[in-house]
Amino acid sequence: MNILITGASSGIGKQLASDYLADGHRVFCCGRNLQALEELKQQHPDSAILLNFDVASLEDCGESLSSLQSLDLVILNAGTCEYIDAENFDAKTFSRVIRINVEGTANCLEYLIPMIKAGGTLALMGSSSSFLPLPRAEAYGASKAAIEYLARTLSISLKPSDINVSYIAPGFVETPLTERNDFPMPMQVDVIFASSKIRKGLENSKELIHFPGKFTWILKIIGILPNRIQQFLITKTLAY
Q: Of 28, 124, 181, 238, which sits 20 to 30 A from 47 (CA to CA)?
């Protein structure tokens, strides 16, 4: 397959790229950290194609993506996470997270949707934080809720073009981003586990891929409860 992965220079994206390359696929490895991308190229010189650009720049996306053709799988994984102190709300932080996570995804979609083959798959990286409101996640959670809505609408809109759309909603995964967290991360998994779950879900054309199941199902169940009960449970058990 011809596969494109953004955010392939670290974390889940890098592991996905490495695993797909090991399986013999041709992978367009996209990211801002060229040195990290070159590690993938050294390991798979014939099948790793490096694209060094910033998803937050529409111009960069156009220069790097507009010449591509015929993709079987696109995984828009690039993103960031920053937390907010609501009592000292920082609009610049909020804007930065939305710009990278939401607008960055949109910038890639403009160029990549026309390149996905009929029968191909588009996957958007979200988070299980989109299932319910969590303290300090005002920016990150809002960005991932937007991605979830985007994935669900694209799933409907792209069906006539025979393009499958998947929304990926991990729990806590051990990555450079989560290393910065200063709170407990229950049921955290590593990137090898995450990559396995994502690849299996995409292979089976799942519209929603979430893991680890025990943790994400708890969040999903809390998320459908009345707001008052949600707030009570979150305050008592999930607040950090």
A: 124
CATH code of residue 11: 3.40.50.720
- The number of helix segments (H) and strand segments (E) in the chain equals 9, 7
Residue 189: DSSP 8-state? B
Q: Which residues contact 88 (CB under 8 A, 6 or more apart)?
A: none
The proportion of the chain whose per-residue pLDDT surpasses 70, expressed as a percent, equals 98
Residues 6+ apart with CB under 8 A from 34: 9, 50, 52
Q: How many domains, the chain?
A: 1
Q: What is the C-alpha end-to-end distance of the chain, expressed in Å?
A: 42
CA atoms in the 13 A half-sphere facing the CB of 141: 13
What's the domain range around 30?
Answer: 2-238
